[in-house]
Amino acid sequence: MSPNVITTPVRAMLVLGTRPEAIKLAPVARAMAASPLFEPIVVTTGQHREMLHQMLELLQVEARVELDVMRDRQELSTLTARLIDGLGEVVRAERPDVVVVQGDTTSALTGALAAFYEHVPVAHVEAGLRTGVLDNPFPEELNRRLIGRMTRWHFAPTPRAAGHLTAEGVPDAEVFVTGNTVIDNLLWVLEQNTGVNHFRSDLRRVLVTLHRRENQGDTMRAMGKALRRLADRGDVEIVLPLHKSPAVREALLPELSGHEHIHVVEPLGYVDFSATLAGCDLVLTDSGGIQEEAPSLGKPALVLRTTTERPEAVDAGAARLVGTDPQVILDAAMQLLDDREEYERMATAGNPFGDGLATERIVAQLAEDFGADADAAAASGRDALIVSPSDGPGSYSTA
């Protein structure tokens, strides 16, 4: 048997349920599908079913297993229980060599937990993000910390994220700074040149996304009023792809409807959203991923949250954390629209989140480590080149 050669493809189960997870795992799935060393098993949890199906096709990713766990306005506890049950069944049926999760969603947490229960090692893409506040964002901060306790491969997007992990006691040998796969996918999609820019005019173009659970209710309604005041300038066009959440729609639609310079559209497909992002002048968002994408395209971003797990963009000067006060949001947006020097400073700050090669680093590291497992199997005289998870990296054995 030849050392460092994987003759049986590594069965990698990739768990995704939300659009951001699909975006950030798509390049990993594509790379694994193109490699003889891997057999990707893409599992969708159905959390954003309508948005995911067409997008996965456009991203050239094929889902092998589709769960159906979503119920209207179900509690997090109910969703979590249904996901652990469904994903546990998939892990037992597919017997992957590694389970790959991304980020900090309930899908990611339950995917890691289902793998842990079945003694399958976990690879965490976009590991190490922290705000330091356990319930902000909720429940993502807790999710990402819990995932970190079950992970063998921590693929951190930045040195800061890696530092959070090592400070928490994660061994250096299990932490890898890769950059963020969202940049890989954004560059790939823009190269395809198939997206539609949804701005309609030559006015100053402001792209807005709002959806976070902690911003819903009165806070989001106040944000909507601030956006309407921004549009009242007359030289601004706002495009807001409206999240499917009933709570988001109830908060924003009454405030934004009927303004000639505000275009509330249904959630955009990823390729159209990417084209719209590329075509905007300014981003206002409470999303996580857009804080990484906007600097790649030279778009200043105002982050409408009180905390961020991506302070690198703020530190670099490409984003500004402005909170949720409507007057502060309005003043910050006005400044960037009126102060050309400040706008250019943010637009040219650069992107601290990656160079488009994160996927290459992730797949290479997994191949190297499973090859090392093959070496160990050969040295011990075992037939299998890929050892069981309990014998190799990520062992959860208590023996």
Structure, explained:
Helix 1 packs across helix 15 and helix 3 (76-94) crosses helix 4 (106-117). The chain has 399 residues and is an alpha/beta fold. The chain is globular and about 65 Å long. Strand 5, helix 5 (140-148) and strand 6 (153-156) form a beta-alpha-beta unit. It is built from 15 helices and 13 strands. It has helices at residues 19-33, 49-58, 76-94, 106-117, 140-148, 159-167, 181-192, 218-231, 246-256, 270-279, 290-296, 311-316, 326-338, 340-347, 358-379, and strands at residues 10-16, 38-44, 65-66, 98-102, 122-125, 153-156, 175-177, 204-209, 236-241, 262-265, 282-285, 301-303, 319-321. The longest helix has 22 residues, at 358-379.
CA-atom Rg in angstroms:
21 Å
Tally of strands: 13
* Strand residue content: 5-15%
Ranges with pLDDT <50 over ≥5 residues? 382-399
- In the sheet with the most strands, the strands line up as 3-2-1-4-5-6-7
Characterize the largest beta sheet: strand count, sense, and whether it forms a barrel.
Answer: 7 strands, parallel
